[in-house]
Specification:
By secondary structure, the protein is of the alpha+beta class. The protein has 9 helices and 22 strands. 24% of the residues lie in helices and 28% in strands.
Length: 449
């Protein structure tokens, strides 16, 4: 028998209550019965669920209700399938995403995600898809059900393509961020009027588009109690606070990626010189579906890879390969989820030590009065004889990356005597005042941009 959802709109002390009682999908009725969404006077969703997965279901439903077209476009971009909707104009974008293996690694590494977070992803997908089925007129052209691997691809795409590194700028040698700025401060109890630690969160990103903020509140009986913000397509909140602690991020510029130049064999353009010998590139024949009028055309594009990474550009006798920190890592969302469930500084730092989130300054404060800053970065050990801020010679093993710096080797400050930490997309060496500032000479020159 087909089940249906009942949605009740009640005006209660300035709130609209939206209660999900049952739904039609066989995989989601239990979650739907376990979640209630309250909209406050600013239409911010307050999502109350029996389980964390139920809260994720509610977050997916609320995001879809507010901007399903944005979710749809982001997952099309992240899976390299935008040309199916927009035709040849989107083919280069799709090819770049596939070259970076964003959807491929999401599929191949999905089982590496812990089970307790896979149910979050799957719950989120259930909420988005349920809304789209109930409101097909609000679903954009070409909509299909969101799959869990799509969500993983979206998270990787947001980090790699928008923040971590943009291969389109390889021709300019150094990837340049848009002129955006954010700021954040944490104040120690001794410096605050009420004798408690204070946290100021003020990220500056566009009003709309890929990195448009989405504010929400999550509270589950399993202890997920978070107020904060995320991007459309995210099943978690990436900054904000719970009842114990809070944190914020600003964009930093660690050396998380490098462009390598290799010499191409003039007799075989699919070979490059490494350690005095020619080495074969790996070439993948990638198929794309491209909209042409009312029909779909199959287009083939060769994707080239060196052992250093994907080839993003060719010029005369050289090819340029891109190497990205944490290229195949799919655990960034898990780290943010662990951060949001931390109850004290030790648990928060344990989540940060996952180092699955490859960048972003982080400022923290908690109800015990601790304040903390870290220049978060996933950066490999590298020979300091080379200029890692420019094009790197890819013909020698001397420029190969070593293991990643450990979390405790990054610039950071815990409870400085000055009573504050701050960052405004600025150097970590001006985090606070006095001797508690991280000192440049204690860190590799290539670490901080």
């Amino acid at each position: 028998m087909r089940r249906v959802i009942t949605i009740l709109f009640l005006v209660v002390t300035g709130y609209w209550a939206i209660s999900s009682l049952a739904i039609g999908s066989e995989s989601a009725p239990t979650l739907a019965r376990q979640v209630t969404i309250w909209r406050d006077t600013y239409w911010v969703p307050h999502i109350v669920g029996k389980t964390d997965a139920a809260c994720a279901f509610g977050l997916g439903y609320a995001q879809a209700e507010d901007n399903l077209p944005r979710i749809a476009r982001t997952f099309r971009e992240a899976t390299g399938t935008l040309a199916e909707l927009e035709g040849k104009a989107a083919l280069s974008q799709d090819a770049l995403v596939r070259l970076l293996k964003i959807p491929q690694f999401a599929r191949e590494n999905y089982d590496k995600i812990p089970a307790d977070f896979r149910v979050i992803i799957e719950g989120y997908c259930g909420g988005v898809n349920f809304y789209a089925r109930r409101h097909p007129d609000n679903a954009p052209s070409g909509w299909r059900d969101l799959a869990p691997t799509d969500v993983v691809a979206m998270a990787r795409y947001l980090i790699i393509a928008n923040f971590l590194a943009n291969p389109r700028n390889a021709r300019q040698l150094i990837a340049g961020q848009e002129d955006i700025g954010s700021n954040m401060w944490a104040i120690a109890p001794k410096k605050s009027a009420n004798g408690r630690a204070m946290l100021f969160i003020n990220p500056h990103l566009p009003w709309d588009g890929l990195v448009q903020w989405y504010e929400a509140r999550l509270r589950s009986d399993e202890g997920w109690n978070m107020m904060g913000a995320c991007f459309f397509g995210a099943p978690f909140l990436g900054l904000g606070h719970n009842e114990y602690l809070g944190w914020s991020h600003t964009v930093n510029s660690p050396d998380t990626w490098d462009v390598y130049r290799v010499t191409v064999n003039p007799d075989n353009p699919r070979q490059y010189r490494y350690e005095g010998a020619w080495r074969d590139m790996t070439v993948v024949d990638e198929k794309f579906q491209v909209k042409r009028g009312n029909a779909m055309e199959t287009v083939h594009r060769p994707l080239e890879y060196t052992h250093l990474g994907p080839v993003v550009y060719r010029a005369k006798s050289h090819a340029y390969a891109y190497k990205i920190a944490g290229w195949d890592d799919v655990l960034a969302m898990v780290q943010w989820y662990r951060m949001s469930k931390a109850r004290n500084l030790d648990e928060f730092l344990a989540a940060m030590r996952m180092q699955a989130v490859p960048m972003f300054n982080c400022v923290y404060a908690d109800r015990e009065g601790n304040i903390f800053y870290v220049y978060n970065a996933k950066v490999a050990r590298k020979s300091e004889k080379f200029n890692w801020r420019g094009i790197v010679d890819g013909s020698t093993k001397e420029t190969e990356w070593g293991d990643y710096l450990k979390f405790d080797e990054l610039p950071q400050a815990l409870n400085p005597k000055a009573g504050f930490v701050q960052n405004c997309n600025t150097t970590p060496f001006e985090t606070t005042a006095g001797d508690d500032n991280p000192k440049p000479e204690m860190f590799p020159r290539y670490l901080v941009g």
